[in-house]
Amino acid sequence: MTMRVLAIYRSATYSPGRHRNNDAAIMDATTARLAENGWAVERLGERDVEAGIIPDADLYLNMCQGSAASMHLLDLEERGACILNRPSTVLGCHRHRLVRTLDASGLPFPLTVMLPTTDAPMFETELPDGEFWVKRGDVHAQQATDVVRTSRDELASVLAGFGARGVKQVAVQAHVPGPVLKFYGVGDGSLFHAFREDGRPVDSDTVDLNVLRRLAFAAARVVGLNVFGGDAVVPSPTHPTLVDLNDWPSFAPVRQEAAAAIAQLAEASAMQRSIR
After folding, report:
1. What is the CATH number of the domain that holds 218?
2. Whole domain around residue 196: which residue ranges?
3. Domains of the chain: total
4. Torsion of CA 179, 185, 189, 190, to 10 degrees
5. Are the CB atoms for 207 and 234 separated by under 8 Å?
6. pLDDT tens digits, residue range 117-164?
7. In the chain, what percentage of residues exceed pLDDT 70?
């Protein structure tokens, strides 16, 4: 019997600018791999899932990021469906939840305080010292102004700016000095790729890649992600600090390698589920 995979594409709301094409491209590449292996592929958008349109399948590839779609998928997860990434872990990546999880994990993570954007209590002792970053407190950045570097003196006006755009809560995160690195990973360890923020490759003078890899996979395990990406800052080569983690990034620099790795993990996961 032909196995069926339902590929759920991310809403453009959560894939701004060039990310829209890149996010679609990694899903296209992954489903192409599965189709080559005999899977029947059906495609839906996140808006379809929000409307409750969720056909039966043996495997669900989930790029949804919004709460509405994830809540619709939770029932499938609770009934034991094979979903990559599971909606509970996607919801766990919403920043107000992610901050709590990473704070409690013991992993290197900067001091981060959640604040409402209106009537924010200015507890001076709770705010990070020096400069810090203000990030929207729900989903990940949808536009450049969703992540702002600022100081205590400017915080009130920054909060007002977020509030004016309808963002109700923000994360105020201590600034960590050092080069910013981005990384991608697949949960079974078959792929890990790190690079500088400007796209240049990472060398051993910048970071111990084994240490960064361990940090990235440890964070993904804590949250429960199988297809993930994130950002780290490196104050010293052996002490990278995680500053963000996200579900199913674009993998643009390593798209074909990532598609092969994700498809392999998806097939293995579906097979394990069918044996149970």
Report:
1. 3.30.470.20
2. 180-251
3. 3
4. -110
5. yes
6. 987 555 555 787 789 999 999 887 778 889 999 998 898 899 999 999
7. 96
